[in-house]
Write a structure and sequence with these properties.
Aspartate Aminotransferase, domain 1, binds pyridoxal-5'-phosphate, Aspartate Aminotransferase, domain 2, 7-stranded mixed sheet, 2 domains, 3-stranded antiparallel sheet, alpha/beta
């Protein structure tokens, strides 16, 4: 049996006719950029997140960058985030002119460790970016208290967590702002690139809108040196269509994750689901002994099972950030996890039979 890591073709099939009709509508309207589809998607996505404002932008990295700038982060500032995120989280901080400070993560959830973050706060710290990694929300009440006590802004990196909840919180609704990615493999994926910022603060929303459009307050009235970071009409139209299926797709991911958990039992170590957390399983990550990881992945590949690693090297150990001087040992939990993690196939259209096959093969490989 062949089990792909994700299957975008299968994912797009149920809405194929709707996507094509949306494309034709935009084609006939001539409003390729800035059409009514943009505001329609922004309103629908903000409502889905439970946020007051949604601003569509061209990708998740720029969503982070624009949100940081809108929150007042700039040169001379430091921003704390998790060491085991996708590189873009730190990259956006650098592009805002600030310095990324990578903090370690909790061993159980692999989410930002606020005790470690507290040790890294300096007089220059301006903001904190909790990353809702693999689709599980950070402990936002604790993050908010942490930030309030220290006068910091909170930006949620929600790129992997569309629809995730924890207690009364929902991704994108409880930070000063949140950044989402609609990269095709994400829980809500565009047919191309896309992203969004959500916020409850009208001033932040206004600023992000301006920053995505060359800093224009009105036509040819530029108040910021900014970006072209708009999301086009076709992507927004398609995202509105896909949004209609997101809750069901997330539910399917959760069901498959429970199947993985039940079938694999204690044979591997799972990422802990925190109390009252309802993750959306952007990724299905398990941990195995570091010295066996490569052999296990090879055995799975030979059995037709595609796997990945998110992420094999924490951000502070990337060559691009050598100048930060956070060498090996500065985030030991993230460093250890990087050697042990395997991401297993996970997408809403994955069959239970395929999950069972992956589990059977993994159990064989673990014994080998
Ligand atoms: C945690 C995280 N942050 C940021 C990004 C950047 O998003 P994009 O690829 O849309 O720029 C991604 C996705 O790739 C991500 O997984």
């Amino acid at each position: 049996m062949k089990v792909p890591f994700v299957d975008l073709v299968a994912g797009a099939k149920p809405e194929r006719e709707a996507y094509l009709a949306a494309f034709a509508q935009v084609l006939d309207s001539g409003a390729f950029v800035g059409g009514p589809q943009v505001a329609e998607f922004e309103a629908a996505f903000a409502a889905f997140c439970g946020a007051k404002h949604g601003i569509a932008v061209n990708n998740g990295t720029d969503a982070l960058l624009l949100a940081l700038r809108a929150l007042g982060v700039g040169p001379g500032d430091e921003v704390i985030t998790a060491a085991n995120s996708f590189f873009a989280t730190a990259e956006a901080i650098s592009h805002a002119g600030a310095k990324p400070v990578l903090a370690d993560v909790e061993a159980s959830t692999l989410l930002l460790d606020l005790d470690d973050a507290a040790r890294r706060v300096t007089a220059k710290t301006r903001a904190i970016i909790p990353v809702h990694l693999f689709g599980q929300l950070a402990d936002m009440p604790r993050v908010r208290d942490f930030a309030t006590e220290r006068g910091l802004r909170v930006l949620e990196d929600s790129a992997q967590a569309h629809g995730a909840t924890r207690g009364g919180d929902r991704a994108g609704a409880t930070g000063d702002a949140a950044a989402f990615s609609f990269y095709p493999t994400k829980n809500l994926g565009a047919i191309g690139e896309g992203g969004a910022v959500t916020t409850n603060d009208p001033a932040v929303a206004e600023r992000v809108k301006r920053l995505r459009d060359h800093g224009q307050a009105g036509r040819h009235d530029h108040v910021d040196i900014a970006y072209n970071a708009r999301l086009d009409s076709v992507q927004c139209a398609c995202l509105t269509i896909s949004l209609g299926r997101l809750a069901t797709a997330n539910e399917a991911r959760r069901m498959l994750a429970q199947r993985y958990r039940a079938r694999l039992g204690n044979a591997v170590r799972f990422v802990t689901e925190a109390q009252a957390s309802v993750p959306v399983y952007h990724l299905m990550v398990v941990r195995v002994a570091a010295e066996k990881r490569d052999a296990i992945r090879d055995a799975l590949a030979r059995a037709g099972v595609a796997t990945a690693i998110h992420y094999p090297r924490p951000i502070h150990l990337q060559r691009a950030y050598a100048h930060l001087g956070q060498g090996p040992g500065s985030c030991p939990v993230a460093e250890r996890a990087a050697g042990e993690m395997i991401s297993l196939p996970m997408f809403p259209d994955l069959s239970v039979a395929a999950v069972d096959y992956v589990c059977d093969q993994l159990l064989v490989a673990l014994r080998g």
